[in-house]
Amino acid sequence: MKWFKRKAVQDERIVNLKNQIAKEAWVLVMIICSISVIVKSFFFAEGQPVYTELIILIVNGIYYSIRSVRTGVYADEVEVHDQTHRFSMTKKQMMIGLASGLFLAFFFGFRSAYHFGDGSGTLEVEYFFVVFLASLMMYIPFFVIVTAVSHLAMNNLSKRRSNSDLEDSDLIE
């Protein structure tokens, strides 16, 4: 039982390497879940459920967002990003929303052509373009608005949290 034992001093290099490994493992899990969703959607006609993978993807994103906002790190990340990159984080988020909508439109277009085409080629092309254009009209505005608004809201909340933490630390000193 090591409940009451003091923590030993740890080497910062080792702690940083362990954190880097955990980050890489997290990215690997996200990639595997994404590939699983794509494979199950495209290659299994009977509609394999992808609920578990989607829950993993969504909950991880929500958890990271909430933790970074509550600790005030998100605003600092945005500030550092805006100083070191050509595009601001707001523009980057809007481009991510645009790319997400475009990717989803292509995905649904190809999926419809693959699953509902008759094999002649003309029907597949027609299904692709109809579904692709309809998806473009729906998903691009949705994702651009959602990513931009969520970024701005998270940035404001994180700044407020960071400022309140700074004021609290000023009171202590």
UniProtKB/TrEMBL annotation:
<dbReference type="InterPro" id="IPR046664">
    <property type="entry name" value="DUF6773"/>
</dbReference>
<feature type="transmembrane region" description="Helical">
    <location>
        <begin position="128"/>
        <end position="153"/>
    </location>
</feature>
<keyword id="KW-0812">Transmembrane</keyword>
<feature type="transmembrane region" description="Helical">
    <location>
        <begin position="49"/>
        <end position="66"/>
    </location>
</feature>
<feature type="transmembrane region" description="Helical">
    <location>
        <begin position="21"/>
        <end position="43"/>
    </location>
</feature>
<protein>
    <submittedName>
        <fullName>Uncharacterized protein</fullName>
    </submittedName>
</protein>
<keyword id="KW-0472">Membrane</keyword>
<keyword id="KW-1133">Transmembrane helix</keyword>
<dbReference type="Pfam" id="PF20563">
    <property type="entry name" value="DUF6773"/>
</dbReference>
<feature type="transmembrane region" description="Helical">
    <location>
        <begin position="95"/>
        <end position="116"/>
    </location>
</feature>
